[in-house]
Design goal:
alpha/beta, Rossmann fold, binds cytidine-5'-monophosphate
């Protein structure tokens, strides 16, 4: 079973994808980490993330690079959203993600274009979203817990500009697949969001099985 989980920054898609992977005993790939690894590598080399050739040269990294704790930083997230706009970068990372999705037994992948580009034939596709204000509050709480001194307004501004960049780019923009189901987590806590996601996946899988019988 392949499960695609897409959505904007801080929507809860990562938490939901991890929970689904644990529940159905499937491997999980957070595809944002791939773009973060490229962005971080360009940053560390003192390069320009807006330069497609420099970003492309950073796409050849090992799986070990995906465990770097710095990938979770705001700087890496922002640079990731810049390098991910280059079609060359998306093309360079495509096969790695498709190979993961094609693992025997299936997989859960989360990102921005899993249901539309990486795994268009996924058995279940969720599009997880929440209001920008609630997403900013969650990110603010997370950063504050990590001991960082941040301002809510600045976090909200970052979320909005990341949304604009991810939705407005021409290469694989953030968009809900036609056959995805929407999960709005604005009014849900983590447990309720995970429970809703499990129900939606089970419904999608049953529907696919029944359609197959028909
Ligand atoms: O999900 P995360 O916040 O870690 O992603 C960081 C950035 O990587 C996103 O803002 C987006 O620009 C990019 N990304 C993407 N396609 C994906 C996953 C992430 O373009 N499948």
């Amino acid at each position: 079973m392949i499960v695609a989980v897409d959505g904007p920054a801080a929507s809860g898609k990562g938490t939901i994808a991890r929970a689904l992977a644990a529940r159905y005993m499937l491997p999980h790939l957070d595809t944002g980490l791939l773009y973060r690894a490229v962005g971080l590598s360009v940053l560390r080399a003192g390069g320009d993330p807006a330069d497609a050739a420099q970003a492309l040269a950073a796409c050849d990294f090992s799986d070990a690079a995906l465990h770097d704790p710095q990938l979770k930083s705001e700087a890496a997230g922002k640079t990731a959203s810049m390098v991910s706009a280059h079609p060359e970068v998306r093309a360079a990372l495509l096969q790695r993600q498709r190979d993961f999705a094609a693992r025997r037994g299936g997989a859960v992948l989360d990102g921005r274009d899993i249901g539309t580009v990486i795994a268009p034939d996924a058995d279940a596709k969720l599009f997880v979203t929440a209001s920008a204000e609630v997403r900013a509050q969650r990110r603010f709480d997370e950063l504050t817990r990590m001991g960082l001194a941040v301002h809510y307004d600045a976090v909200l501004g970052d979320i909005r500009s990341r949304d604009a960049r991810d939705s407005g780019r021409s290469a694989a923009p953030l968009r809900m697949a036609d056959d995805a189901v929407l999960l709005d987590t604005t009014a849900l806590d983590v447990e309720a969001a995970i429970a809703a996601a499990c129900r939606l996946v089970e419904r999608a899988v049953h529907k696919a099985a029944n359609d197959g019988d028909a």
